[in-house]
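ESCALATION

Customer reports they have been waiting on this structure for their group meeting. Please prioritize. Original submission:
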Amino acid sequence: MSKKTFLILAVLVVIVNSFGLFYDIFVADSALYATISKSFYQSGDYLNIYVRGLDWLDKPHFPFWLSALSMEVFGANSFAYKLPSLLFLLVGMFYTYKLAKRLYNVNVAYAATLILGSSLHVVISNNDVRAEGVMLGLIVGATYHILKLCSRYSLRDLLLAAALSAAAIMTKGIFILIIPYSAIFGHLILKREFAKVLNYRWLILFSLTLLFTAPEIYALYIQFDSNPDAVAFGEKGVSGIKFFFWDSQFGRFFNTGPIKGKGDLLFFVHTVLWAFAPWAVLGLISLIKSGKNIITRAAQKEYLTFFGFIIMFLIFSISKFQLSHYLNIIFPFVSIGVATLLLNKSNVKSLNFLQRASLNLYALVAFVGILVAQIFFATSYSFLGIASLLLLVVMVYLFNFSKKESRPSQVIFGIIIALIFSLYVNVGFYPKLLEYQSAAQAATFANQEYPERHVITTNNDLLMDFYSKNEVKLAYSIEELNEQLSKDRDVLIFANDDFLNKMTENNLDYALIKSFDEFHITLMDIKFFNYKTRGETLRKRHLVELR
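Update from on-call: job pushed to the front of the queue and completed.
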């Protein structure tokens, strides 16, 4: 692949990922994290995390700090919240390039960078933004600088390795360091470079990393450890520092912490097949090849990418906490593995056949996915759908039937297939899907039509809190509503049918302003997907005012 081709494809990858900046935030965790970031920005208090006025202890501060600082520049909106995640994806792509180039060559670096940026769940995560986009950049960056330290101990690499590692800890917890260190130590041990493993200089790196984590430790100390009245998990006297270093990660892994989960050992096996599309089958082949080489003690240039992926993948699978977006942070390592597989000209015919078959299979899946969405989901971008389908057909034809000199390589074919599908998802599918987030729709409507009135919401949907320009109050019961109304009756009330019936029963007369369709879009099912049966799955939420 030429440098010019790489740059063109890289720009396209960034553009496709950037579309998510301009759409609403997703419900659930994304809305929660955005609301916390907004509270930092509005209050100027970057130490204490509150959700609707209550102490909150779960995720560390770093991604909230980033989004809050972005809001200082762009205001409290979706773009500002999502921008840091995209920027750290770019950091991750940059360091994937640097790492692949150091381990192999510039061609592998080109391919690995594009493979990472075009994988399906990476694109999705720039819509449904959580902490993994930030972590991706931090982890692969830390791994790169730690690897450099193994060859030449420089102050620059030491400081960057420690700073990136500390930021990763302040994003997800100390457990996250398993990824770079299992990658580095696994590589060194199998290369039989034991002197580097036992070097005392690791203590300097660990100490600096802990030192750079001080802002998170200080924030937790201020809110919880120095404040015995703070409440977390329904209890007073909870140590935020202990939770950060143990319960937040190790407690979840062993399922002994205050936050518990349920798990399926095969969850990530089948999840990776779509999350790393269209590269998942090739990723599996590259991991099997590396694993086989390790078992048979065959020569291999590096082991870092194998251990960077497989150790955390196994830990994720054993853990009771299993969400698809967790996988993003180990995709840089398997991306390099896929790139080496695709660019290895000595591959046997059977392996070449599997590579081509895998990419053709994903092209077929993309075609069927877009076609089904056009027929049943009834998107408003039919031109985009038809254009995407035609482009897929053209690309499959060129890849399989054109003359050899004009045939796109497997790398380029896979990237273009991925970009066509991701562009359709970002521009043709998600905008329609997001219309069913009633809280975001109602807040936007209230901001425009009733800019001076605050809202009392009767549900726990934090999208109302994030998008509303005015204060949002919470009332789960009629008693709580009456308490709020005793202070101010000139308000808007956002409620479902059941709550409105309770208001009527309690002689609270109201006038309907507007109704909104509601569906939990992260739990989409077939009945919702099909526009003919969608109405059966929708709930109504209403914006009303007292008469």
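Sent to customer with the following note: Residues 349-377 form the longest helix (29 residues).
Escalation resolved.
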